[in-house]
Amino acid sequence: MNKIRVRFAPSPTGYLHIGGLRSALYNYLFAKKNNGTFILRIEDTDQKRHVKKSVENLIKSLQWAGLDYDEGTYLKNSKFQIPNSKFIESKNYPGIAEIGEYGPYIQSERLDIYQKYAEQLVKEEKAYYCFCTPERLDQMRKDQIAAKQAPMYDKYCLKNLTQEEINKNLKNNCPRTIRLKIDPGETLEFSDIIRGAVKFETGTIDDQVLLKSDGYPTYHLAGVVDDHLMKITHVIRGEEWLPSTPKHILLYQTFGWEPPKFAHLPLLLNPDRTKLSKRQGDVSVEDYIQKGYLREAIINFVALLGWNPGKGSTKEFFSLNELVKEFELKKVHKAGAIFDLKKLDWINSQYIKKLTISELYQESLEFFKRKDFYNNALPEKKSEEYLRKVLAVEQERLANLAGVGENDRFFFEDVEYDKELLRWKNMSDEELKNSLEKSKNISENISEADWTKENLEKILLEAAGEKRGELLWPLRVSLTGEKKSPPPFEIAWVLGKDETLKRLKQAIDIL
Ligand code: GLU
After folding, report:
1. What 8-state DSSP symbol labels residue 291?
2. What is the C-alpha to C-alpha distance for residues 236 and 260, in angstroms, rounded to an integer?
3. What DSSP string describes 79-113?
4. Which residues of the chain have pLDDT under 50?
5. Whose alpha carbon is nearest atom 3 of ligand 1?
6. What pLDDT, on a 0 to 100 scale, did the predictor assign at position 82?
7. pTM of the model
């Protein structure tokens, strides 16, 4: 069998969609598992849809996810000197030279190749020039819709133009496209690795445009030519491309090339089973990075959107390496995959729990720096030592890193609260004061060296005895000003002895 070669072929329309990450991941896993090659190809032949900087963003998001591509155009700033490799400075994306050793393949830099293949088909009479104006095509479509027909090109230029007229139009440089000649009435069948046998009638396929009037190829032509030239063995892509596949197979047949195998991945759905869309929430990988989801969690979550290791396995956590070992294209489901944010939060919280405090600190620092409560805090509350303590308390409860400190601003800010909040059940003012005084005395008697979470817990619980609420509730509120928070021993430990005493005094003073 030929060496496995797969590609991820995004169009640069702004950002890496979470569905795009899934396609990239499945391609990557399939390649790595089979000792194959994973290619990145930028499909930027629709210049109208092109968004600036999106190629750079795409590459960065893939790099962030750890999905390195194996092959591409060799960039100017590369440290490596590979003999005979193609050395380019990307004309269209000079910025990507900074990003890595290799650039992706870029379709807008390969236009002459597609033009050559389209012209070849015209010469072989398998395709033809179409000089129809956009106005004519519009009118044709309107008439067809009015007559309740499916809108399709009526083959006007194929049926009506003489060779002389064609030559004249070419000589006058009339705007033109090249269309594929499709014979209606055939049935096309192909076998999809995930969906099984798929059948189409060619009567429903338009004489598709291969080359547009601006000299750019359509997605169909460029994709097929590149998949052939890049020796792609398996096309693994989202189900939304399934309706295009018959056109691609026809193109392969027309060129006399063997098509690759196809695997169409299930649609991503919202929990209400509507198609995942930007309106319902974030869909770009960048958004999730910004919200503090860990790479490992996103990869794990995305891998499970349409795949699982099969019956009998209850395993839910997979590292990228484990996925490489266990992933099988055959086990990808046909049914739409539900994108459940609650599950992502849960997976992410599990990965956060697994981090060491040092790792958590490294990952969290930039998120703290985006918070006003952190930026306005006193210097001692921004120290690494202090933040590590805050994180040790929060680690168990964090769903994502953007949440650091959010529920526990009292670690950074002074506290303010209504005196009534200090009251546990129906304690009198007198009892409340005594309780706070007791906490204060206990705290004063613990030395700085003994000020540990464990000691504080032990000493305070002993002192509270049966009546936990009476001692611990007023203490906790005095330290946090909040109805809900982590336990008072942990908070006192983070705040330190001085600040704990200061807040206790403040509480006593307002009574
Ligand atoms: N350029 C297409 C996209 O934006 C690629 C489809 C394919 O993989 O063939 O997703």
Report:
1. T
2. 10
3. S---TT--EE--SS-GGGGGT-SEEPEEGGG-HHH
4. 78-87
5. 10
6. 44
7. 0.90
Structure tokens at 156: 């006007």
pLDDT at 313 (0 to 100): 83
User: Rounded to the nearest whole angstrom, what is the distance from the C-alpha of residue 508 to the centroid of ligand 1?
Assistant: 66
CB 394 within 8 A of CB 405: yes
State yes or no: is 453 an active-site residue. Answer: no
- The tokens for 266 are 């299930």
pLDDT, position 110:
86
pLDDT for 391: 98
CA 237 to ligand 1: nearest atom:
8
User: Who contacts 99 (Cβ-Cβ below 8 Å, separation ≥6)?
Assistant: 56, 59, 60, 63, 75
Is residue 11 lining ligand 1, measured as CB closer than 6 Å?
Answer: yes
Could you say which of 76, 86, 231, 278 is catalytic?
278
CA–centroid distance, residue 11 to ligand 1 (Å): 7
Q: Which residues contact 163 (CB under 8 A, 6 or more apart)?
A: none
pLDDT of residue 89: 55
SS3 418: coil
At residue 84, the pLDDT reads 46
The pLDDT tens digits for 137-148 are 999 999 999 999
Report whether residue 39 contacts ligand 1, using a CB cutoff of 6 Å.
no
Decide whether any atom of ligand 1 lies within 6 Å of the 237 Cβ.
yes
- Quick check: 153 and 180 in contact, CB under 8 A? no
Q: How far apart are CA 15 and CA 161, in angstroms?
A: 44
Residue 74: predicted pLDDT: 56
CA of 103 relative to ligand 1 center, distance in Å:
18
**Ordered DSSP codes for 421-483:** GG--TT--HHHHHHHHHHHHHHHHTS-STT--HHHHHHHHHHHHTT-HHHHHHHHHHHHH-SS
Tokens at residue 509, please?
Answer: 């003073």
- Look at phi and psi of residue 214 and say left if phi exceeds 0, alpha if psi is from -120 to 50, else beta: alpha
